[in-house]
Specification:
- Helices cover about 50% and strands about 20% of the residues.
- It has about 260 residues and is an alpha+beta fold.
- Helix 6 crosses helix 9, helix 6 packs parallel to helix 10 and helix 9 runs antiparallel to helix 10.
- It folds into two domains: about 130 residues, no CATH class; about 120 residues, DOCK DHR2 domain, lobe C (Methane Monooxygenase Hydroxylase, Chain G, domain 1), CATH 1.20.58.
- The chain is globular, with a radius of gyration of 22 Å.
- InterPro entries: DOCK, DOCK_C_lobe_C, DOCKER_dom, DOCKER_Lobe_B, DOCKER_Lobe_C.
- One of its GO terms (cellular component) is cytoplasm.
């Protein structure tokens, strides 16, 4: 297993720290590397044992099932973590001059995709990585993906609330609060400052379609939030009414800034 890479499925609810400790117990002479960067040649050629452990995200093969309306959430949950060949991890980094007022302007993401010899889970809980692909995502592409994922998460939670699949309204409350609070305190406004200004549009004529896509996602998110708050109002318990009112007030501030 020297200089090889594997993806391993941990135990149910196992924290990364516990998994790391389990591996170090199995390899008591190994030195744990504290970063996810690709090791250099000195590490590959070293006499000592090194273990590099980090979390990866499964990339479902069957995207059509996940995006189709009307499919029960338990079926979607199955496809999110079964029959998976590809996994990824992201390393954010800043390229060029970092703007202290708005870090989104220079925040790039190095995305590494790991492709396995066989899909997980299988007869074994771990399989070797056959191939790795590395791409860089620009700050604008990163912003688009963040908004797409958040909109999808909101839609799922709202749907679960409407169909009474959710026993507790807290996950929806926390998600609405996180998105609206971040937007009021600069989240979406920071995207506007970074990508919608004349200077950026003139300097990046190739990004026209992506800027349009980001604008669409921001307006779409406002619609989802408005609908989510209407659903939330029907199911929120009495003791959380003040928080709901605060979210509604903050939402109108956010909406007026778009």
């Amino acid at each position: 297993i020297q200089n090889k890479e594997f993806v391993c499925r941990g135990h149910d609810y196992e924290r990364l720290e516990a998994f790391q400790q389990r591996m170090l117990n199995e390899f008591p002479h190994a030195i744990a590397m504290q970063h996810a960067n690709q090791p250099d040649e000195t590490i590959f050629q070293a006499e000592a044992q090194y273990l590099q452990i980090y979390a990866v995200t499964p990339i479902p093969e069957n995207q059509e099932v996940l995006q189709r309306d009307g499919i029960p959430d338990n079926i979607k949950s199955f496809y999110k973590v079964n029959h998976i060949w590809r996994f990824r991890y992201d390393r954010p980094f800043h390229k060029g001059t970092k703007d202290k007022e708005n870090e989104f302007k220079s925040l790039w993401v190095e995305r590494t995709t790991l492709i396995l010899v066989q899909s997980l889970p299988g007869i074994s809980r771990w399989f070797e990585v056959e191939k790795r692909e590395v791409v860089e995502m620009s700050p604008l592409e990163n912003a688009i993906e963040v908004l797409e994922n958040k909109n999808q998460q909101l839609r799922t939670l709202i749907s679960q609330c409407q169909t009474r699949q959710m026993q507790n309204v807290n996950p929806l409350t926390m998600c609405l609060n996180g998105v609206i609070d971040a937007a009021v305190n600069g989240g979406v406004a920071r995207y506007q400052e970074a990508f919608f200004i004349k200077e950026y549009i003139l300097n990046h004529p190739e990004d026209g379609e992506k800027i349009t896509r980001l604008r669409e996602l921001m307006l779409e998110q406002a619609q989802i939030l408005e609908f989510g708050l209407a659903v939330h109002e029907k199911v929120v318990p009495q003791d959380m009414r003040p928080l709901h009112k605060k979210l509604v007030d903050q939402f109108f501030v956010m909406k007026s800034s778009l």
